[in-house]
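Write out this protein's structure.
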Amino acid sequence: MSLLYSDPNLEIIWEKLAHGERLNSEDGVRLYRSNDIVTLGQLALEAKEKQFGKTVYFSNNLYINPTNICDVGCYFCAFARPEDAPDAYVISLEEIGQRVREAVERFNVHEVHIVGGLYEKLSFDYFAGIVSVIKEASPSLFVKAFTAVEIDFLAKMGKMSIRECLLELKRRGLDSLPGGGAEILGERVRKKICPQKITGKEWIDIHREAHEVGLVTNATMLYGHVEGPEDRVEHMIMIRDLQDETGGFRSFVPLAFHPKNTKLDHISPTDGMLDLKNFAVARLLMDNVPHIKAYWTTLGMKMAQVSLYFGVDDFAGTNINEKIMHDAGASSPVETTRKEIVRLIKEAGFEPCEVDSSYSTQYA
């Protein structure tokens, strides 16, 4: 490969990659410090295409947020409500089953994604029942449910260990954990934006246990608030280290922070340079996590399309009924169609492939 442009930082990276050397934390910071976005994209695109060629993955999925009542009080969250708020809600198990049946019938979804608030007046049986009713409604659906933060909450609610909680949910039909709740794993930032949440180490430990019981998981990174390049790199290295140990992560999902309606609404939204850098750095630094996902809900469709040239191989999903990011001011569509995702991928010059979050099942 010959680079179009370069700077001294990227020359160092290029030499390492050419010799098959693994990038370290200092290299990750060098990547973030570079403004040569063209060369950065070229490096990430080549790394991606070595693994996947022109294939870009996506899913046809339904979002369900069982409740928006939550007492954690994360400073970056616009979704959570106190229980006495006029727009607070809890969705019944019957309604969840009905929503799933309708989504399968109308949209032929293959996956259900579930995250929500931590509401102590509900029970473990309610949350476990969500998995059960989904599988009863459509046994072939892939169920990706409950972040590590929710797993910690459910285990305490059910008076069981993390492993016992995971095994019971798996018995009910759980296939995967989403990557949420990671935010920034380093404690310097975590104490500033979500001090009441589990620690970064606890998040890692829960995903380790999930991998050990046979559940695949994702990892996210919420960026564009009070963190800096060093914090993002630390976050990625923590995930990379666990992946070396377990191999259980399927994808990494950088999420652009949307400040509207949050306690951090004085912060400006992210710009395109930072968005694209995150994908490219993730592709180059996290060499053992196979898939890098562009969550178009936070980026917008056009930027997600461009990200395919910056190391991204997963365009995310149809995201039917997504609420959390839109409550924070995301201006993207609330959902999209399979046809539209296929069109966008093809127009960018790639080949769409529909999968679920295991990436092992492909759909025509």
